[in-house]
Write a structure and sequence with these properties.
heterotetramer; A mainly alpha (about 625); B mainly alpha (about 100); C mainly alpha (about 120); D mainly alpha (about 475); A: mainly alpha; two-stranded antiparallel ribbon; C: about 120 residues; mainly alpha; about 70% helix
Chain lengths: ~625, ~100, ~120, ~475
């Protein structure tokens, strides 16, 4: 069964090729069958492969399938090879299943668009293929191919409605900002190949363990550069600014790429190269700090957004911050657990938001929504479940188990401590506040004028409802595969992942403390919901009163703009850069390049003079060349 | 004797080469190329006296090839003359640069 | 080389030099005042009509081309003919193939009309 | 085993023009001529599979049919088949007799096959001249077009003159070594201990001239742009690929047997030629506006790259040369194929300006063309990249650092003009609707299939070069 592994990325690739080749000639249902079907097949194969992997785990906990070697020269031997272990299996499981559900959803969602139906599915299929390549890659070369591939697809899909210039600009912004991280990662690759002489990930990690001293400069440099790549792709501080703007893409894209899968590539990268990070403890701590700061920063920013998708975007940044925090404190499996649960509920939330947006004729402003609970009960319940999971409502949602694990580990780990724990807990409070602010604004309250104008509002069709339902069930039920000590201590998930990632060892573990901390986390979640209830529902207008305060207005503006990072970067990088470019328009370096161009062109014209078109001139050329050649051969 | 033969044939070859370079008439240029080939023939026949029969056999083939080349060359030159009314190669320079 | 032939070589040389000397001397010494009439080719006192170079039909070239190709046949056939007995049947087969290939060319030329004068 | 059965592929290739000639005499039909030439090229190809494993001993002193020769014969006759398919569409739109074109084409390929299998100066010269003489006819085939005639006479005079140089070189080497047989040369050279004589070196120099002319490397390159531009486009494709490929195959074999590359002075001269070709070729192409001319210049540069691997000459070098050649075949045939297929009765699509905005009218064609240009420029994931990569590796393994660095530098110049063409295709289409190239000509099915096949191969060998490489390794292995 494991030999079927190559089929998993092959199906979406075939879908992409088919759609680009003949997509324009297919009818929409045909496109839908090809587009969603290819990912569905790949999900089925993942299931088969996953079952046989778990039934009979291969020796060493990993299965390598080498398709072919690209070139084989002087030790440089990049292969098209896939590496399946518990880590990549978890990831591809999420990508194919959530990916399939989102494709299914798009079948209906994209039907409204006048054009680009097959283009959309072609890009989406290509994305899934690239993402799977990234996850399954056995060497960094192939991983880079997937990494750049998902970046490209993200760019194409953010700018999908390219006729609006703002969308194109958002796409460019995403591409350029992540490129900063990609450059760092590329440098890491060069450095690793130069130092260790291989790009094969497993061999590389092994050699790194032997050659690098823990805490040495080289290990720190490599880990820092890799972190740079991860931070860019996963929209963490300081490269988080692109993600909110990326919401310009169609909602399924936001769900698939900018919530569930691509943005977690950074998490995957760090987990995949965890040996390098353990060799650089300082960087690992930095990962935790970045995670904590990001989750707080994004949490505050989400509080004041009015666009429903931007709230979700900031919450994504914040939740990935949790994953980074978990990675930073060495709780590898906790990070992956949160990744999986997050993929379920965040996809659910985006799809739910998409359903709302769709029925409100592309209205994304929450202040213009309201009272949708009665109009769209199914969507409401699904959205509510997703929000519960996001806000980590205790016991009943999966989000509680995954997030609580991280919060507890932030305190309990050797690297962690009170500060990280406090940050994570504060983040949890913020999460439930902004989440339920969103729920109350959208679904409760009186229906706004705009909503009344559009009544009666219909529930979406089956292609949208099935993914919502499935994801809602998962958001509730998936938590039970990993239960804390206080609740029965079930470690199915971490036990599985520990075949690929190092086991987590807590330090302070005492039953009482853990219980206390869990209660605190639960209190933060529920307290947040209560707070919003009092502010939004119990006494309408109180929010406006707070917002009217001068200090609050300043804060709101700061948070609304995502802590002003855009303005900061604009002032710090873009403007000085443009200024330098303007000042240096005629500088020496330009002179150099222009001189090169000038000389080359001059040489071209001089050389062209020899092509006179006269036979006798050519014959003379040959004769002179003959004399010189023979002369040189004899003399030299 | 080998040196003399080589010198003669080299001289003939150089004369032929110069002919190709300085003459303008395509047919004469072609004749000069034939002269080059025949200079080599002379050398080959002379060498084969010392080192074996291969040289002489080669000469047969060279002669044949020269004839074929002359036939095709002449045909092309005729076509050119029909079209341009001249065989002066300096007039053919539509294609350049 | 025998010394006996030296006088003959000398005679050849002297007569050649003599001829060149006389032609060159008259060429150097004579006065040159060309007029169009004088520059005209001499055709027994008649005013020349048309180009001196007679144009002949391009068909001659075609015949010449055919001739060049086919007369080379002999170059390969004569060595075979001389050593026919030594070469035996394999030589005969080789020569036959050679002639057959040339015949194919001849057939082509015939059908194409290359042998027709008109 | 009958020793003649190994000769079957070459005999069949030789029979093809003969059969064509007889058929044309009695029944003229364009389609029939195409079919006969395709069959004539495909039959030996089918037989190659049977003979490839039998390491045939030299049957006649003139030819040696080893795996190496068979590989190249297969490559060259496949390329000829592509040219035949392209020629059909091309000749359909020109006046006059069409059938003789295929006669000359198959005859030229027969010459190439003799070249690749030759083990003797006689077969070397005969193969080369069969090729050249057929090419004179092909280049000047459109005998009512001035440019075709002009390029015909240029090619005729210059090729004949340089063949004379080659012949003189052969005579000199013969005088020194006393043999014309490649295999015998190896033993004579091995027995030699003293310094090489002037005769031998002079001979080598002149052989380089003859080969250099066919390969169009500096300073024997000047004919190439004029002839490329004036010749019918399928013939240009043939000149770029098959004619050069056969010469490279021979050069490798002669280099191996004849000791050409064992002398430092020869290697230095070849290095100078390689560097000059890379730079001059790329410089000349830089601002060229005629696509066919530009490709001639680019071909000069590419042969310069190829010479680097020839100089490296180690086993690695021969692999690199052959792989590079295959990649170059695919790419060049593809580009010239697209030029041919886009041209119509009114206009040949050979100006870069004709391609302005092509993407918006023919996205598929311009996509394929972009891929091919990427391959020429050596962008990763195309066959051209892998080829260039192997050439560079061969250079590095032989410590030819200066050459390798110069190769990379000149490739950068090359990138400029390839990108220039690509950008032109993606510009907005010219406003003038009566622009000469409407590019509305639909590709015929065979044309489309061939071009699609070439594009697929281009990507396939760029991503998965291993099978081709192992085939090459097996073939070149038999050369030693």
């Amino acid at each position: 069964m494991l030999e079927l592994l190559w089929l998993i990325p092959a199906f979406p690739l075939a879908g992409f090729v088919a759609l680009t080749l003949v997509g324009s000639r297919l009818s929409r249902p045909e496109v839908a069958y090809v587009g969603a079907g290819s990912v569905g097949l790949s999900a089925v194969v993942t299931l088969l492969v996953g079952l046989s992997f778990m039934a009979a785990p291969p020796a060493g906990g990993s299965f390598v399938q080498t398709l072919w070697v690209w070139v084989d020269v002087a030790g440089f031997r990049p292969a098209f090879a896939f590496h399946l272990d518990a880590l990549s299996l978890t990831m591809i499981f999420v990508v194919t299943f959530v990916g399939f559900l989102i494709h299914l959803y798009s079948v209906e969602y994209m039907m409204e668009e006048e054009e680009g139906y097959s283009r959309f599915f072609a890009y989406m299929n290509l994305f899934v293929c690239a993402m799977l390549t990234l996850l399954l890659a056995d060497n960094l070369m192939l991983l880079l191919l997937g990494w750049e591939g998902v970046g490209l697809c993200s760019y194409l899909l953010i700018g999908f409605f390219y006729k609006d210039e703002a969308n194109s600009q958002a796409a460019s912004k995403a591409f350029i900002v992540t490129r900063v991280g990609d450059t760092a990662m590329l440098m890491a690759l060069f450095l690793l190949f130069a130092e260790l002489g291989t790009l094969d990930i497993q061999a590389l990690l092994e050699r790194a363990g032997q050659q690098f001293q823990p805490g040495s400069g080289m290990a720190t440099a490599v880990a820092l550069l890799l972190l740079g790549g991860a931070v860019g792709k996963s929209a963490q501080l300081p490269l988080q600014t692109w993600l909110p703007d990326a919401m310009a893409g169609p909602t399924p894209v936001s769900a698939l790429i900018h919530a569930a899968t691509m943005v977690t590539a950074g998490v995957y990268l760090i987990a995949r190269t965890h040996v390098l990070f353990t060799l650089a403890p300082a960087v690992l701590t930095l990962v935790a700090v970045i995670g904590t700061l990001t989750l707080l920063m994004a949490g505050f920013a989400a509080l004041v957004q009015s666009d429903i998708k931007r709230v979700l975007a900031y919450s994504t940044i914040s939740q990935i911050g949790y994953m980074f925090l978990a990675l930073g404190v060495g709780a590898w499996s906790a990070a992956l657990f949160h990744f999986m649960i997050h993929a379920f509920f965040k996809a659910l939330l985006f799809l739910g938001a998409g359903a709302v947006i769709m029925s409100l004729h592309h209205e994304q402003d929450m202040y213009r929504m309201g009272g949708l609970r009665r109009q769209m009960p199914f969507t409401f319940w699904c959205f509510l479940i997703g929000s519960g999971a996001l806000a980590a409502v205790p016991v009943v949602t999966a989000g509680f188990y995954s997030k609580d694990l991280i919060i507890w580990n932030a305190y309990n780990s050797e690297i962690g401590g009170v500060w990280l724990w406090a940050g994570a807990l504060a983040g949890a409070l913020l999460t439930s506040v902004y989440t339920f602010r969103m729920v109350f604004l959208t679904f409760y309250r009186e229906a706004t004028e705009w909503v009344r104008h559009l009544m009666p509002i219909h529930e979406p069709g089956p292609c949208v409802r099935i993914p919502l339902g499935v994801l809602a069930v998962l958001s509730v039920a998936a938590g039970v595969i990993e239960l804390p000590h206080t609740m029965g201590s079930l470690t199915l998930f971490s036990g599985f992942l520990n075949t690929a990632l190092p086991e987590y060892h807590g330090v302070h573990a005492s039953y009482g403390t853990e219980l206390l901390f869990e209660l605190l986390a639960a209190a933060a979640s529920l307290g947040g919901i209560w707070l919003v209830w009092t502010l939004v529902m119990a006494s309408p207008g109180s929010m406006e009163r707070i917002a009217a305060q001068p200090w609050a207005r300043g804060l709101e503006r700061l948070w609304f703009s995502g802590w002003g990072f855009d303005a900061l970067y604009d002032a710090l990088f873009v403007k000085p850069w443009l200024w330098c470019a303007k000042v240096n328009k005629d500088d020496f370096i330009d002179f150099f390049y222009r001189a090169v161009a000038f000389i080359t062109e001059t040489l071209h014209f001089v050389a062209s003079m020899t092509q006179t078109g006269a036979v006798r001139w050519y014959a003379t050329g040959i004769a002179v060349g003959a004399v010189v050649t023979v002369g040189l051969v004899i003399i030299l | 004797m080998l040196t003399e033969a080589l010198t003669t044939s080299a001289l003939l070859f150089v004369i032929g080469t110069f002919g190709v370079l300085v003459r303008r008439n395509a047919i004469i240029m072609f004749l000069c190329i034939e002269l080059q080939l025949n200079a080599v023939n002379l050398a080959l026949v002379a060498f084969s006296r010392y080192v074996g029969v291969e040289g002489q056999v080669f000469v047969f083939f060279v002669m044949t090839v020269a004839a074929a080349e002359a036939a095709v060359g002449l045909a092309i030159i005729i076509s050119i003359f029909r079209h341009y009314r001249t065989v002066n190669v300096d007039n053919f320079n539509l294609l350049k640069w | 080389m025998s010394d006996a032939y030296l006088p003959i070589l000398l005679i050849f040389g002297v007569s050649a030099l003599n001829a060149v000397f006389m032609v060159a001397l008259s060429h150097i010494l004579n006065p040159r005042r060309p007029t169009p009439q004088k520059a005209m080719p001499y055709e027994s006192g008649m005013i020349p009509l048309g180009d001196t170079r007679a144009r002949f039909s391009v068909k001659f070239y075609l015949v010449a081309i055919s001739f060049i190709v086919f007369d080379l046949e002999a170059v390969f056939l004569i060595p075979w003919a001389v050593e026919m007995r030594a070469l035996g049947w394999s030589g005969f087969v080789a020569a036959s193939i050679f002639v057959a290939v040339l015949t194919a060319g001849l057939v082509y030329e015939w059908k194409k009309g290359g042998l027709d004068w008109d | 085993m009958n020793p003649f059965s190994a000769l079957t592929p070459i005999v069949l290739l030789g029979l093809t023009p003969l059969v064509l000639m007889l058929v044309i005499s009695f029944h003229r039909s364009h389609r029939l001529a195409v079919v006969i030439s395709l069959v004539g090229m495909a039959l030996p190809l089918a037989l190659l599979a049977g003979t490839a494993t039998s390491a045939a001993p030299p049957l006649a002193p003139l030819l040696i049919i080893d795996g190496y020769a068979l590989f190249y014969i297969g490559l060259l006759s496949t390329a000829t088949m592509v040219v035949v398919v392209l020629s059909y569409g091309f000749l359909e739109r020109v006046p006059g007799n069409r059938e003789e074109f295929y006669l000359l084409l198959t005859l030229a390929t027969f010459g190439c096959a003799v070249l690749t299998a030759s083990n003797h100066f006689i077969s070397f010269f005969l193969g080369l001249e069969i090729l050249s003489v057929s090419l004179y006819g092909l280049v000047a085939y459109l005998r009512t077009t001035r440019t075709a005639l002009e390029s015909g006479i240029k090619y005729l005079i210059l090729a004949a003159a340089s063949a004379a140089f080659l012949l003189f070189g052969m005579a000199l080497i013969y005088a020194d070594l006393g043999t014309m047989d490649f295999t015998a040369m190896t033993s004579v050279l091995a027995a030699k201990t003293r310094e090489p004589s002037v005769l031998l070196l002079g001979g080598f120099g002149m052989v380089i001239i003859g080969a250099g002319f066919k390969l169009a490397v500096v300073p024997f390159h000047m004919w190439a742009p004029d002839v490329y531009q004036g010749a019918p486009t399928p013939v240009t494709a043939y000149l770029t690929t098959v004619s050069k490929g056969a010469m490279v195959a021979l050069l490798l074999r002669y280099g191996q047997y004849g000791g050409l590359l064992d002398y430092d002075s020869v290697a230095s001269v070849l290095a100078v030629i390689a560097v000059l070709s890379m730079f001059l070729g790329n410089l000349l192409a830089l601002l060229q506006d005629n696509l066919k001319r530009l490709l001639a210049y680019s071909s000069i540069a590419h042969l310069g790259y190829l010479l680097v691997a020839v100089i490296a000459a180690s086993r690695e070098g021969s692999h690199a040369v052959t792989f590079y050649l295959v990649a170059y075949f695919i790419t060049s045939l593809g580009i010239f194929g697209i030029i041919t297929a886009l041209s119509d009765e009114r206009k040949e699509a050979d100006e870069i300006s004709d391609y302005r905005g092509l993407f918006w009218r023919r996205p598929w064609v311009s996509g394929a063309l972009s891929l091919m240009l990427f391959s020429l420029a050596g962008i990763p994931l195309t066959a051209g990249f892998v080829g260039k990569f192997y050439v560079l590796t061969a250079g590095v393994l032989s410590d030819l650092w200066a050459l390798v660095i110069l190769l990379v530098v000149s490739s950068v110049i090359g990138l400029y003009y390839y990108l220039r063409i690509i950008i032109t295709m993606y510009l907005s289409a010219p406003e003038d609707p009566s622009s000469p190239l409407s590019a509305t000509r639909r590709f015929s099915l065979p044309e489309g299939l061939v071009l699609a096949g070439l594009t697929v191969l281009l990507i396939w060998f760029g991503i998965y070069p291993a099978p081709l490489l192992s085939a090459i390794q097996a073939a070149v292995g038999s050369l030693a």
